Structures are given as C-alpha cells and as structure tokens.
Amino acid sequence: MSESANTLEKRKVSTTHRITICAQKLTDQRGFDGFTMDELAEAAQVSRRTLFNYFPGKLDAVLGPGPELPDQVIETFRAGGPNGDFIADIKVLIAAMVDIKGFDRDEALVARRIFKTNPRLLLAVHERFHAVTELFTDLILDREGQDFGRHRARILINVLACLFDVALEDVLSDTTGRRELDAAYFEAFDTLRGVLSC
Questions:
Q1: What are the φ/ψ torsions at residue 74 (nearest 5 degrees)?
Q2: Residue 105, SS3 per DSSP
Q3: Which domains are assigned to the chain?
Q4: 119 prior amide bond cis, ω within 30
Q5: Are 44 and 110 in contact (CB under 8 A)?
Q6: End-to-end distance of the chain based on CA atoms, in angstroms?
Q7: 77-108, pLDDT tens digit by residue?
Q8: What is the pLDDT of residues 23-43, one digit of tens each?
Q9: How many angstroms separate the CA atoms of 161 and 141, rounded?
Q10: How many CB atoms lie under 10 A from the CB of residue 94?
Q11: Where is the HTH tetR-type domain (predicted)?
C-alpha cells in the first residue's frame, strides 16, 4: 500500500471511529431517538454528506463498522494455518478480527451502558453477532470439513464470544486501569483451553 493510500485509510478509520463514538455518546446522553443525523454530523465535525458516506443511518453509526477479516488471514486459516493447531489458529483469527489493541476503557463503558439499556440496540448487536457466527462457522467447516459439524462450530464460536465478555468485564472492573483487553482475552482463552484439556 502506498504512503498516500495508507494515510487515506488511517483517516477513514479515524473518521469512522469518531462518528461512532459521537453517536454512542449522544445515545448515552439523550437516548437513541434523542438526536438527529444532523446533530451527529455536527458533533463528529463532518458534513451530513460525509456522515452518510460512512453510515447509511443512525443505527449503523451507533453500532460502528462490523468486524472485518483480511482476505489473507481467511485464506491462511482455511488452508490450516498459520500454526497448524486448530485452537491456536482460531486465536489468531479472533485477534485479526477484533481490534482489541485500540481499546479505550471510557468508550467501552459508554458502549456497554447503551447496549444494555436499549432493546433496539441490543437486538441489532445480537443480529450482527449472528452474522459473524455464520461467517466463523463457514470458515471452520471450510477448514475442518463438514464432519466437524455446524452445531459444534456454533457452540465453539459462542463460547469464544463469552470469553470476550468475561475479559471485557475483567478490564472494566480493574480499578487500576492497567489491565489490557487483549491480554485479558487471551488469558481467558488459554485458561479455557487448559480447563478443557483436563
């Protein structure tokens, strides 16, 4: 990727993040129906046109962009990599999908609060999770074969999502503010792997 393309991509990611954070803060302060897209554009310091170039509507802006997996990561996983160990490779896949390095505690607290208190947002999060579950299920079956079982793959994905919730709760309840989400998630992941191997 050229330097100018890289700069453009960083700007796009930054603008997307800013819009979502502003949408979540407005939702927290006023409720989901308590602000307009014009007010969101003003809060995010973008034009209305730019706002709609990034998100088709308010719900999408509050949820933020869906998780994405780079094509190379998907192909490597399908081919049995990068480590050749299924569980270790799932861990790599999750790390590539979830930007837990850019975690901000205050932003996470706002997001968690609005998703817990707004049924419409909670339903939208659930629908998005269902779509991600289907993607991961298909990837697992592509790699491991249909004999692995769709039900088994879905159970695994739901357990991994629960680990994320456990890690997030650990980090948000850490009063020192020093616990990192990626470390907490992978610690939970490794703990579960150890428990299941007993």
A1: -60, -50
A2: helix
A3: 1-65 (1.10.10.60), 66-198 (1.10.357.10)
A4: no
A5: no
A6: 46
A7: 999 999 999 988 998 888 787 655 567 888 99
A8: 999 999 999 999 999 999 999
A9: 18
A10: 21
A11: 13-73
